Every structure is written in C-alpha cells, then in structure tokens.
Amino acid sequence: MAHFVEIDSNNVVIRGVVVSDNDQDRGQDFLAKDLNFGGTWLQTSYNTSANVHRLGGIPFRKNYAGIGYTYDAGRDAFIPPKPYPSWILNELTCCWDAPTTRPSDSKLYNWVEDSLSWVEYTITP
C-alpha cells in the first residue's frame, strides 16, 4: 500500500489516503482524475520519520506527512507544525528542536516557552 496526501495552495497537508501498489506510480493522476478528487497529491512514506526509514530503507521526504504538515519543495520534505516559537528547524531531520536539549534521564518533562526550559512533569496526589 502507498500513502498519499493532498496539499492546499499553501503546501499544507489537508487529507491523506491509501492507494493500492498497482496505482502507486500513477498517484497524482489516479487520485485527481480517476477518482475525481482533484487537487495536488504527493506520496509520503509511512516508515519515514526524522529522515530515518524505520525498516532500514531509504528515507522518503524526511517525515511521514500528517494533516497540518507543510510540504517544502526545496527540501523535498514534509515538515510538522512548529510546536513553539523558539524551536528551530533541524535541517537534517526536518523536525523542530528545542533551543535547549531535553534532559536525558528517565523523568518526564514539559517544555515551558516562557522560561525556554524543560520542567520536570510532576503528578500531585
């Protein structure tokens, strides 16, 4: 099965569909014309995240596209929505990185934009 997403005029993903392998090579024409969906359709890889193919294959378009992701034609990449104003796009992964590294212990943390820091998540009884 092949996964395709439709992008709007701003290159933002608005919906996704699964296409049989038989129609994969004709993705755009199959979806827009044969199925009468119209629009602009691009293939995305279910197995690609942060520019790594989880099965050891070749990563495709940096990330599996979700609704709200943006397609960047220059990078040939799907980029997730920016989670916080201070976060920076990682050019290798096309994911957003916090300006400071998350602590690597086994504790849970939340990002606090006001202080630009990771704060340990605590549960109060």
Description:
The protein is mainly beta. It is elongated. Strands 2-1-3 form a three-stranded antiparallel sheet, covered by helices on one side. 6% of the residues lie in helices and 34% in strands. It has two domains: 1-81, no CATH class; 82-125, no CATH class. It is built from one helix and eleven strands, in the order ββαβββββββββ. A hairpin with a 5-residue loop joins strand 1 and strand 2 (13-19).
Shape: elongated
Percent strand equals 25-35%
Oligomer: single chain
SSE arrangement, N to C: EEHEEEEEEEEE
Sheet/helix structural class: mainly beta
Let me know the average pLDDT. Answer: 95
Using brief descriptors, characterize the structure shown.
125 residues, 1 helix, 3-stranded antiparallel beta sheet, elongated, mainly beta
Compact overview of the structure:
This protein has two domains: 1-81, no CATH class; 82-125, no CATH class. Helices cover 6% and strands 34% of the residues. It has one helix and eleven strands; from the N terminus they run ββαβββββββββ.
What is the strand and helix layout of this fold?
Blueprint: E1 2-7, E2 13-19, H1 27-34, E3 40-44, E4 48-49, E5 52-53, E6 70-72, E7 77-79, E8 88-90, E9 95-97, E10 109-112, E11 117-120
Antiparallel strand pairs: 1-2, 1-3, 4-5, 6-7, 8-9, 10-11
